[in-house]
Each structure stands twice: as structure tokens, then as C-alpha cells.
Amino acid sequence: MIPSKKQLFDKIKPVIKDILNQQATQSEKLQQICDFLQQNIPYYDWVGFYFANLPEQKLYLQEYAGDETDHKIIPFGKGICGQVALSNQNFVVPDVKAQDNYIACSLAVKSEIVIPLFVNGQNIGQIDIDSHTPNAFSKEDETFLGWLNDQVAQKALLKS
Ligand code: SME
Predict the structure, then answer these.
(1) DSSP string for 84-117
(2) Whose CA is nearest to atom 2 of ligand 1?
(3) What tens digit of pLDDT does each residue of 49-64 get?
């Protein structure tokens, strides 16, 4: 039987916690998260973390899993990612072709989700997922990825 999204995310959450609790660098942990999500969620075809450079008003791609992309630097306001840098809101795109302000990485991509990552209330970056499946993302993905970004903020980005 195909597992429901809830079953899938319930299985994945402890793995994310284990990755974040390891002795490893921030970059190694984020790379493992990208690899794990991309390999274990069938409709997550590309997974990446962009981080904001506030003085430059640009996003820089750091860790990612999936095809190489030309879009490693994205100005705030450009594309789905650049819009999230300014809006501080989740952005779910059921059909990328219907978006005017969209940066295409690959013609195979049909839908996308971008969830901002907050540290101490500041939007410092985001997780971006592309899918080759149309309308792949639901409220459950938003909730799961929001949870994931909170874990990343607490365990990998905040120095305590
Ligand atoms: N589609 C994104 C660009 C990043 S790629 O998906 C890797 C956008 O419109 O911002």
C-alpha cells in the first residue's frame, strides 16, 4: 500500500532529529537533510536551502540535492524564492506555468513549494522543493516543512 503523507512524514521526523543531533557541521547536516528528503519522498525531485544576504538583498543557494541549477544567486523579489524573501510567507505553487514571476530551473518541474526559515523571528532563508508532479504539495507539506525549518533553526543555526 502507498503510505499517506502523514505516515511518511511521521517516519521521517525522527530521522531529521537524528541528523540534526549528530556531531557534524551545519553544512553537513543540511546536505544530509536535502539528500534524505530527495531520496525518500517520491515527489520531492529537487530540495535546496537558500540563505539571505541582507545587505545585498540576494539569496544564495547553499546545500541542495537534485539536478545542478544555474540559479545559485536570486535577487530578493525575483521568482518564487525571491518573493518569499520579502513576503515572509509560505508559497505553494500548484502549476509553475501559471506564475508570471517564476524562475524555471528545468522544464520537468511542474509544481514548487518554498517555506521561509526564521531565526529569532527574522526570515534568514528558505527551503525550496521542486516536483515533477503537478499540484504535488498540500497543507501537510507546508506543516512538515515548517516543522523542519524550526528544527533546523534551533539545532543547526542558533549558536547556544
Ligand atoms: N523556481 C525558483 C528558482 C529556484 S529553482 O527552483 C532551484 C523560483 O522561481 O524562485
Answers:
(1) HHHH-S-EEES-GGG-SS---S-TT--EEEEEEE
(2) 103
(3) 999 999 999 999 999 9
